[in-house]
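Attaching the record inline, Q. Sequence:
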Amino acid sequence: MHDPWVFVAFLLPIGLLLPAVAVLMGILLGPRKPNAIKGTTYECGIETVGETWVQFRASYYIFALIFVVFDVEAVFLFPWAVAYQQMQLYMVLEGVLFLLILAAGLLYAWRKGALEWV
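Structure, as predicted:
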């Protein structure tokens, strides 16, 4: 039987080389026709009015990041819930521990005021 790391050593260069080749081909073969119109700010086909560089509050990004984190963590709970009937006790306890860690993270974000939409 072969060592499992042989496959990693074989696929790692391929996994790094393929995206690099794709980006390089796009740079080399892509059309380059700079234009003043192409350099303007585009917003839904309408000419922009006023300042185009608008700063958003960081709380919006934090709110979105917290949503994404808890949304992804909820996806991890689906296989656990589907196989709940066949689980042994230690698996259930690990799932409960996972939920407690999520609850602690939610409580921390709530206490810090990251969930307040201002």
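The mean pLDDT is 85. The radius of gyration is 24 Å.

More tomorrow.
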